[in-house]
User: What shape does this take?
Amino acid sequence: MPSSPRRFPAPWSAEVQPNYYVVRDADGQQIAYVCYSNDPDRRAAAKLLTKDEAKRIASIIAKMPDLLRKPER
Assistant: This one.
C-alpha cells in the first residue's frame, strides 16, 4: 500500500545550535542540518563551513517553501 507523500508545512525556520544550524518546518520536524566550525584548524582539515556560511545556507533552505510556491492566478 503506497504511503501518502510527506508534507513539511511552511514556514520553515533556521536556528543556531552549537556547531550547526537546524532547519525546521512549522511542526518542528528537522529538515536539514548545516554544520560549521569556529576552529580554523579543524575547519581547514575537515573542509567545514564558517558560522556565517552555514547561516546563509540554512537561511536559503528555510526560504525554499516560499521560493517553490506556485504563483496564484
